[in-house]
Amino acid sequence: MALKAFDLVSVLDRTELKIECFEASGKDLYLGSDDSVVVHYIVEERTNESTGKIFYSTNKISQKNLGTKKTVVQLKTASALGRLMVLSDGNLYLLDADVLNTIGSGPKIKNVSVFCVNENPNTLDPFTVQLCVGKRRCIMICSLHEDRVTLLREISTPEPINVAMDGSFVCVAGQGQYCVLNVDTGASQDLFPYSPTTYPHVKRVAKEEFLLAGPGNLGMFVTAAGISERPPIQWTEGVTALSYYHPYILTICSQFIRIYSLIDQQHKQTLTFSGGQLLGNFDGQLYIAGNSCVYCLMPQPWTSQVQALMDSERVEEAVELAEHSGAVGMSQEQYHQLCCTLMQKAGFIKLSHGVYDQAKDFFLRGGIDVREVISLYPGLLPSTVSFMRMQPPLHHIADISQAMHGDKSKIGEAKAFLLNYLIHLRNSGDPITYRLEVDTAIIKLYAELKSPNLMTFLRSTDIICSLPECAEWLEKHQQYSALAKLYRVLGDLDKSLKVLTRLVREEIKDQHFKGIQDLVDCLICASDSAVIWRYSEFVLDRDPIQGVRIFTETQAYLDPSRVLQALQRYPEARLSFLHHLIDTKKMRDEKYHTELVLHYIGEVVRLSKDKSSSEQLQESREKLQNLLTSSCHYQPQLVLKRLQGTELHIETAAVFGRLGEHEKALSMLVHQLRDFAAAEQYCIAQSRTASEEKKSDIFLTLLKIYLRPHPGGTEHDIELAPAIELLSVHAGDLKVSEVLSILPPSWSLSIIHNYLRAALRNAMHQSRIKRIQQTLIRSENLQQKFILNKISKDMGPIPVANNRICCVCNRAFTSCEFTIYPNGVMAHRGCSPNKNVCPLTGTVF
C-alpha cells in the first residue's frame, strides 16, 4: 500500500491562454502566458456539503498585456507592498498586484535573464523586498520598494540560468556549473557541474540549504558552506519542475507527479498528471499547472498519513514522519500523546514480528503501560489486579501464542524478551507505576525459564509481588530455593525455614540449592532466639562448621554459656565460637579465655606426640603463644598447673610474665632453653605498656640473669656475650647507676665502653629534650600573658555577671576560664573549638 500524502483538486479546468508561469499569494492566483499577458484570479476554497469534498471556485479579476509579444518567464508577488514582479523579454516590470497597472513608465530593470526573492532577508524593514537579479555577466542584489528598485550590490559571475537566495548566500546555476556566492564578502564556492541536457533546478529547502538537479538524475542537497548533509534523492529522468513541502520533495515530469520524503529520501507517492509543466509551493498552497489548466495538490493531514503507514506496518516511516511533522494543528500535549500512542503501536507491531530490540525501544520511548505488554502473556498478571486494555486498542493481538502462531520456540523467545524488558524497567532507576505487576511477572518468568538469575534478582532488590501466586508458580516449576528466598525477603521466615528444611532432608530437590549453607543463611536473619534454638541441633548434626555460624553471625541475642553448652558435642564448632567471643566480641570473661588457652595446650601436647604433623604443631604453638601474650583475662595458676610436666617452656615463661614473675620467666628462657633472642623479645613485649622505671627493671632483671651462673655452675659460667649485646642494644633502657652496681669488678672499661658511650649520649639527649620542653612552655606562657595584657588594655576589665551564660550551651560560667570574642560573645572553652570563628554569629576574626 503506497502512502497517500496528496490529492489532486482542480482549480482551473481550462484557460484560453497557454500558461508559461504562475504565482500565488493567499487567494490571488496569477498566470503568465506565451504572448505577454498576465491574468489575475481570485481562488476560493469551498466544501461540498453533501460529499464533504473540497473544490475551488475562481473569479477573473483583471488582465494585463505587457505589449512585448514575448513569453512571460517569471511572476513573483511582494504581498507586503501590493506588487507583482513580471519578467518578459528580458525586462523586469513592477505591476499593481490587484489591477495589474504598471508602476512607473516602463520596466524597472532591463536585460534580466532570471530573478528570485530572498526568502530569508537580511533587512528588518517589512515593507522592503530583497531581490537577486541575474543579468548577462553578473548578479545584482536589489531592494524593492513600492515604486522603485534600488541596487545594493553587484557581483560578477558567468551568465546565470537559475538562482535561489537565502540570507547572504545565493546559489547560482551558471553555464554548466553550480556555485554558491556570499554577497557580503563576494566569496564564491564552486559546487559541481551539470549536464547541458539537464535543466539546472535550484530550490531553497531550508535555512542556507538548497536542492540542486545533479548528474545521474540525482537531487543533491547542498549547504551554503558547499557541503551535503543529507543523502541525495534518486528521481526519474525529465523532471521539469520541483518544489518542497515539508517533509516532502515534489517533482513533475510529462506524465506523473512523484513525491519523495526528505526524511529517508525514498519515493512515497505517484500521481498521474499529463502535460504538467509548473509546480510551486506558495506559502503552503501547492499549485501545479499544465498548458491550459491549474490544479491544487491538497496535502493529507499528517496524522492520516501516519495512520496509513501504520496500517501497512511501515513502522519506521510512520514514526519518522510524526517526529518531523511537529505539532501542526494541535497542542504540544496532544502531539506528545499522539506520538506516545504511535510508539506503543509500533512496539506491538515489532513484537508480533519478533523484532524484539526495536519493540523494546518503541515501548520505552512511548512510555507504555507495562500491563498492556504483560497482559499478552496469560497467567503473568496477578489475579487480584483488574486490568482492561486501552480503548481504542493499541493492537489486535489476543495473546503471545496467537501472535507467534503457536510456535513454542518463538513463544520462548517472546517470553525472554518480556523478561529482558521488565528487568530493564527495574534497573533503569525511574519510578515504576506498577511494581506489583512487574515483580510478579519477573518472578514467574524466571521460574518458568528456570533461570539462575532468579536468586540474584531476589537478593539484590526490594520485592513487591503477589506472594500466593508467586509461591504457587515457584512450586509448580520446582524452584524451591527461590521459594524459600522469596518467603524470607517478604518476611515470612517460618515458611522459608520449612522449605529449606525439606530441601536439606531431600524430601524435595532443587538444582540451585546450595545445601545446609542456605538454611544457615536464613537462620542468621532470625531475630527470635527461639527460632534459632529450634533449628540449631538439626543444623549442627549435619554440619558443625556451618552450624556455628548461626551463633556467631546471628542478629538475635544468645546467652554464650548456653551456646557453649549446646556445642559440647561439637569440638570444632565450640572452638570457633570461643574465638568469636574473644576475638570479635572482645569479651573479658576469664572462663572463656582460660578454656581457649587450655584447649590449645591440650592440642599442642597431643600434636607433640605425633611426629608427622610438625607444621600443624608449629601453627598451634603460635596460636597458643599469641593468645598467652595478648590476653590478660585467663587464670594463670590454672594454666601453669596444666603446663607442668610439658616441654612448653616458652609458653610457661609467658604465663610467668602474666603473673609479673619476670625473673622466673627469663631464667627459664635463658638457662633451660638458652634462647637469648626469645628472652630479649620477652623484655620488649612486657615493657611496651610499662613505665620507664618498670621497663628498666625488666631489662635489668635479664642482665642479672646473664651475669649469674646457672644452677650448679661456677662464677665463670656467666652469659658474657648476650650480656654485652644487651648492654649495647638497649643502653637507653638500662639505668647507668644500677648497671654499674651489678657489673663484675673484674670487667675492664673496654668491655662496657660502647654501653657507657650510648648511655651517656641518651642521658644528654633526654636532658636537652627536657630543657627544650621547658623553654617552649615558658614561651607559650609568655605569649598568653601578652595576649591577656592586650585584651585588658583594649577591652578593660571583663565583668562576668551571675546571670551571664554561655551562648552555645546556655549554662552559667563557674570559673574564670572562658572565651570572649571581639564582638563581645562569651562561651565556655569547650563550647568554642575555633577561636577565630564566633560560635553564635559565625563571624570570622
Automatic annotation (TrEMBL):
Record field: transmembrane: none
Domain CNH, residue spans: 16-286
InterPro entries: Clathrin_H-chain/VPS_repeat, CNH_dom, TPR-like_helical_dom_sf, Vam6/VPS39/TRAP1, VPS39/TGF_beta_rcpt-assoc_1
Biological-process GO terms, alphabetical: autophagy; endosomal vesicle fusion; intracellular protein transport
Domain of life: Eukaryota
Recorded GO CC terms: cytoplasm; membrane
UniProt CHCR repeat ranges: 548-711
Compartments where found: Cytoplasm
Keyword field: Cytoplasm, Protein transport, Receptor, Transport
Cell cycle keyword on record: no
Name under which the protein is recorded: Transforming growth factor, beta receptor associated protein 1
Organism: Halocaridina rubra
